[in-house]
């Protein structure tokens, strides 16, 4: 397994660890509001909006790094930046879930980041 795939797997695993920590911290707490109410909260909607912007920014910024750089180093740097920004999508969800004390609010950001990670799996030709 190459270094880039190891980094990819490690950052993806960190998002799973976030969920485990969140779920173990909040699983026994009663939900203070219905999920629909929490999703309609302006703070939650704003945070999810930021998460969506970060998702697209991950690919735009990484693409710019790849275009400006040359060779394998630029590809590696762009991939790591993409992975880190995708992880921040989950961090947004983690914060929302802890503030609202509802672990279910992490799931939309996790799914969004997971889609990004699936699209970013380092391919054979990028192995360095």
What's the quick description here?
The protein is mainly alpha-helical and 128 residues long. It contains 5 helices and no strands.
Write the layout of secondary structure elements.
Layout: H1 3-26, H2 35-40, H3 42-68, H4 71-100, H5 107-119
Helix pairs in contact: 1-4, 1-5, 3-4, 3-5, 4-5
Structure description:
This protein has 128 residues and is mainly α. The protein has one domain (3-126). The protein has 5 helices and no strands. It has helices spanning 3-26, 35-40, 42-68, 71-100, 107-119. Helix 1 runs parallel beside helix 4 (71-100), helix 1 (3-26) packs antiparallel against helix 5 and helix 4 (71-100) runs antiparallel to helix 5. It is elongated.
DSSP summary: helix tally: 5
Number-wise, the strands total 0
User: Mean of residue pLDDT?
Assistant: 91
Number of domains: 1
- State the end-to-end CA separation: 10 Å
Give start-end ranges of low-pLDDT stretches.
none
N-to-C series of helices and strands:
HHHHH
Question: Major sheet, described briefly?
Answer: none
Strand percentage lies at: under 5%
Cα-atom Rg, whole angstroms? 16 Å
Query: Tell me, what's the shape?
Result: elongated
